Amino acid sequence: MKLFTFKGGVHPSENKVQTENEAIQTFDAPKMVHVALLQHIGAPLNALVKPGDRVLKGQKIADSEAFMSAPVHSPVSGVVKKIEFLPFPLSGKVNTIIIENDGEEELAELKTIKDWKSAPKEDLLAMIREKGIVGVGGACFPTHIKLNPPKDVTIDTLVMNGAECEPYLNADNRLMLEDPKSIIEGIKIIMHILGVKNAKIGIENNKPEAIASMIKASEGDNGIEVCPLKTQYPQGGEKQLIKAILDREVPSGKLPSAVGVVVQNTATAALVYDGIVNGMPLIEKVVTISGKAIKKPMNLKVRIGTMFKDMLDYAGVEREEVDKLVMGGPMMGMAQHTEDVPVVKGTSGLLALTTAETNPCKAKNCILCGKCIGACPMGLEPLMYAKLAKFNQWEEMGKYKLMDCISCGSCAYICPSNRPLTEAINIGKAKLRTMARK
Amino acid sequence: MAKLLKMGPSPHVRTSETVEKVMYDVIIALLPALLMAVYVFGIQALTTTLIAVGTCMATEGIMQKIMGKDIEVKDGSAVITGILFAFVVPVTMAYWIIIVGSAVSILLGKMLFGGLGHNIFNPALVGRAFVQASWPVAITTFVLDGQAGPTMLDAMKRGLDGTLVAAGNPYMNALLGKMGGCIGETSALGLLLGGAYLIYKGQVNWKVPAIIIGTVGVGAFLFGGDPIMHMLSGGLFLGAFFMATDMVTSPYTEKGQMIFAFGIGALVTLIRFKGGYPEGMAYSILIMNGVVPLINKYTKPKLFGGVAK
């Protein structure tokens, strides 16, 4: 079988085996849900409800006029108790609507477009926005914006990201295995919106069952092709995926649309289908719960707004063993300082990692081994960033193409000296952005 | 509220490889050559090596103390410098010169630059160059089986018959190290075994030693020498597998490493055939060490999506 791949990258221990055969379980909606009013890249939302209001499951409860935004919906039926400024998993605090679940699961009236094939593109895009759909692969870019590329570019291919290259995670894997039809239907809707005839689904070859499942579900659709990928991190990076599958290189500083491509996550496609044909807004999420400190690693379908603490209690956690609690994968996920934060639309994993897994180690001098350079999928010299950051040489970091860094963490992962590479990169990017604004 | 958990940027997992593991792999790889040296030169080869290693570790520890740095003599890098320094001197060299030379290796070659990772030149070769300048006779007197004599390269340079150097098949002698020369340089076989281990462990890119040895072979052929003998003799294998591949003092991209390797091979050929020394490995590596910043500058990796200018 031909395997597609890109140059560079690393191959961390996959740690998929703990949850790859765990069928998705449904976690009952908790008594209290905490819906954060910032779930995606872009502006925080304004609440459309106030304490004391009764809300229905699927009812829109917050929205924004800002271009880069998507509304959020109540994951349960119940009564709004409070709107408070609370910690959420993306850093800092944000307004959060706390809803007491009445357990009725009473649905709001949900608009659908059953006959999407004859619907105009604008209506479908508006409906995708209305359902609060964002890219659930991690970045949470609002999907209606991504599916509406600039008029001056021609999109010829839809690339579907089913790589799930982050270790530990199996949320997308299980969804491709258990509900391939929704994904394929979603892909067809997206192809219709983009007006493209070709869709390529990239899946790493450590998920043979998902590959088989998606091939089977796409039989008869000539435009949809499953492309097995070499298991290599960051295979799911947009630019790496396009390079691997289509051998096209997105130019530095440009978006995939520059080479005629739009990339979507497979789970997002299922949401598009569910939103348009069934009318269901994005109110739940499949989350992989794993890590050595978890007693029963599992894949759990949870409502947005479920507290991490409740999920950890459900899966069982050895709290004394936890070195780091991470939302997302171990390579790009975010460390959490508390369990008292809720699931957001981009939550794909919840990892309770022990010191044996995180392998902390004192930072040493750079020995110029060049492993970070070999691992960088963007062709950068990461070792220079730690060096330059130490002397506040931010502009020089820009000359070393810092803004092309996709923050995949491959360099920091591979470094035998455990250099603070991602720290330097994060600070450098922030500094360069501030300087660019001035 | 539950206890606050540890923060920190991604990635939250890291490779099991550490600087120590890299260094200890190199030390393991140097052992076959050390065993061959003991076999050929006797137990003094081992004593000399241990003295050099001890001196290097002590010097590094004292310097780290004086400079207010963390004491990290156990990271293995000073051990490597000690072994390599012992490997590039004759077994007959006085112990006090060994001590001075290996102390200079660490002091001048490494710590004054700021310690591990900051040095430009291979520390062991800095020590060797110092000794060569200070006690030229001591470092060029080679004894085998109680008899002083020329090395193979020396003999070839002076147009002598190779069989004069030692009895038996000269190629086999060169392979096993049964000829006059420095402690760790002579046995091509021992070095090859260690080198193969490093390549297997992913610490060394096979292209670097291959290019150096290949260039010298081709060069010797072009200058009318014996290519096989030139490839097997002198410090070529030791330098090619263990010094030109030193991460700190070689370029950090593959392309750069290949240019670096070719430069070393070309300089060695030039010195051996046109220079004043019979052997040129040490100086070739030191010279190319100095060129590394320039090579790094002009062999940047290709930016993904980089637009051709």
Automatic annotation (TrEMBL), chain A:
Organism: Psychrilyobacter piezotolerans
EC numbers: 7.-.-.-
Superkingdom field: Bacteria
Cofactor note: Binds 2 [4Fe-4S] clusters per subunit.
Keyword set includes Lyase: no
Pfam families, A to Z: Complex1_51K, Fer4_7, RnfC_N, SLBB
Membrane disposition: Peripheral membrane protein
Cofactor: [4Fe-4S] cluster
Protein known as: Ion-translocating oxidoreductase complex subunit C
Role of this protein: Part of a membrane-bound complex that couples electron transfer with translocation of ions across the membrane.
Positions bound to [4Fe-4S] cluster 2: C376, C405, C408, C411
Subunit structure comment from the entry: The complex is composed of six subunits: RnfA, RnfB, RnfC, RnfD, RnfE and RnfG.
UniProtKB/TrEMBL annotation, chain B:
Keywords (A to Z) from UniProt: Cell membrane, Electron transport, Flavoprotein, FMN, Membrane, Phosphoprotein, Translocase, Transmembrane, Transmembrane helix, Transport
Superkingdom of origin organism: Bacteria
Subunit structure: The complex is composed of six subunits: RnfA, RnfB, RnfC, RnfD, RnfE and RnfG.
Signal peptide: none
EC numbers for this chain: 7.-.-.-
Coiled coil: none
Protein name in UniProt: Ion-translocating oxidoreductase complex subunit D
Keyword Transmembrane helix among UniProt keywords: yes
Major location (coarse): membrane
The UniProt record lists the keyword Transcription: no
TM segment ranges: 26-57, 78-109, 182-200, 206-224, 256-273
Membrane topology label: Multi-pass membrane protein
Record-stated family: Belongs to the NqrB/RnfD family.
Organism of derivation: Psychrilyobacter piezotolerans
Cofactor(s) listed: FMN
HAMAP family cross-referenced by the UniProt entry: RsxD_RnfD
Function: Part of a membrane-bound complex that couples electron transfer with translocation of ions across the membrane.
Record localization: Cell membrane
